[in-house]
Design goal:
OB fold (Dihydrolipoamide Acetyltransferase, E2P), elongated, binds adenosine-5'-diphosphate, binds magnesium ion
């Protein structure tokens, strides 16, 4: 079992608050990803869980036991770092067995555990090599193997893929997802990369400035971001934002007059907001279409386009000067400066109030 409860956790360094009251529940066998911009406190939060930093206040509970002040070695957690932290003078085999040797585990048991980890991570042929004779990807697998042999209650990963090149990152990401299924283990994974968060997590925890912005499954966060920060952080390319004013509010729909001139009716319940209040419309590139002139809702000017082959991402500027990104077919490429007409998939538009909080979607659309 590995149920982790974090309550009102705070951490400051030299009087500066870094973790500002985090509450979080992590359930047995979950793959939880902490994601957020660099410096938001992800590593600090992970290190507090591991016991590598002392908390300033608050509680951490593992399977009902308070571990807030427990020594790291007694917590039964294993951490994998971005920098691998292997012992350079030891073989792979020795790197894998070292923690077990220290704990005086029996020789046969150590051999069995090392063999098992080597098999899972396909390190069998590399056991007698030293770390400098390994590629970056292989070193990272050894670092993960060192965690596996310890059979920890929770695996803690701090940006484990950041030092790998792009292709290897994708491959290792898949291997980690498979590892999670095979081991049926609880994993907490820190990254600044929202694609890693979306693809790996059962549960994503979006952090910003030492606070939790939102917790949910990847698709809950994609479809129902709670605020502008989460909306802008998750999704590639990013959601576009347009300023506007509410000019009709009904129970199940509302009208928004955008600064760029377009007026949209949205199937959203903006009850609680009054006519005249400032709002921000959010629309993802995949929920905008380029249509023939006259049939759309908004004219924009094409800025640069990024052609990926499968898709083209057209960056466009609106009459207000605000920028949007539109995802279109790969064979479509507007010229810089072209006038385009856009249509909005209004069922998938988001609306945020003046404080940046999401205006609720009607229930039948909850994905
Ligand atoms: N040991 C430390 N002493 C002082 N400040 C620290 C220490 N560790 C982290 N910080 C500060 O805490 C903030 C969050 O750091 P960190 O948790 O590493 O962020 P992230 O992993 O999200 O990039 C940063 O501003 C960092 O400078
Ligand atoms: Mg970090």
């Amino acid at each position: 079992m590995a149920d982790l409860k974090i309550r009102n956790l705070q951490k400051g360094f030299d009087g500066t608050a870094i973790i500002k009251g985090v509450d979080l529940d992590i359930r047995d066998r979950e793959f939880v990803v902490f994601v957020g911009p660099s410096g938001c406190g992800k590593s600090t939060l992970l290190r507090l869980i591991a016991g590598l930093e002392e908390v300033s206040s608050g509680h951490i509970e593992l399977d009902g036991q308070d571990i807030t002040d427990m020594a790291p070695a007694r917590r039964d957690l294993a951490m994998v770092f971005q920098t691998y932290a292997l012992y350079p003078h030891m073989t792979v085999r020795k790197n894998l067995s070292f923690a077990l040797d220290l704990a005086h585990v029996g020789k046969q048991e150590i051999e069995a555990k090392v063999a098992n980890a080597a098999r899972i991570l396909q390190l069998d042929a590399l056991l007698e090599r030293k770390p400098k004779q390994l590629s970056g990807g292989q070193r990272q697998r050894v670092a993960i193997g060192r965690a596996i042999v310890r059979n920890p209650k929770i695996f803690l990963f701090d940006e484990p893929l950041s030092n790998l090149d792009a292709a290897l990152r994708v491959q290792t990401r898949l291997e980690l997802a498979r590892l999670h299924k095979d081991l049926q283990a609880t994993m907490i994974y820190v990254t600044h990369d929202q694609v890693e968060a979306m693809t790996l997590a059962d549960k994503v925890v979006v952090l910003n400035g030492g606070r939790v912005e939102q917790v949910g499954s990847p698709l809950e966060l994609y479809h129902h971001p709670a605020n502008l920060f989460v909306a802008g952080f998750l999704g590639t390319p990013k959601m576009g934002f347009l300023r506007g004013t509410l000019n009709r509010v009904e129970a199940d729909s509302c009208d928004v007059q955008l600064e760029c001139g377009t007026r949209l009716t949205l199937p959203l319940s903006a009850a609680g907001l009054s006519v005249g209040s400032s709002v921000t419309l959010g629309v993802r590139p995949e929920h905008l279409n380029v249509v023939s002139a006259g049939s759309g809702r908004m004219q924009v000017t094409a800025d640069v386009s990024e052609r990926l082959g499968s898709d083209t991402f057209c960056h466009v500027s609106c009459a207000s000067g605000e920028m949007l990104t539109v995802r279109v077919r790969g064979d479509f490429a507007p010229r810089y400066g072209d006038t385009l007409t856009l249509d909005f998939d209004t069922a998938h538009c988001h609306l945020f109030d003046a404080d940046g909080q999401a205006v609720a979607k009607p229930l039948q659309q909850a994905a």
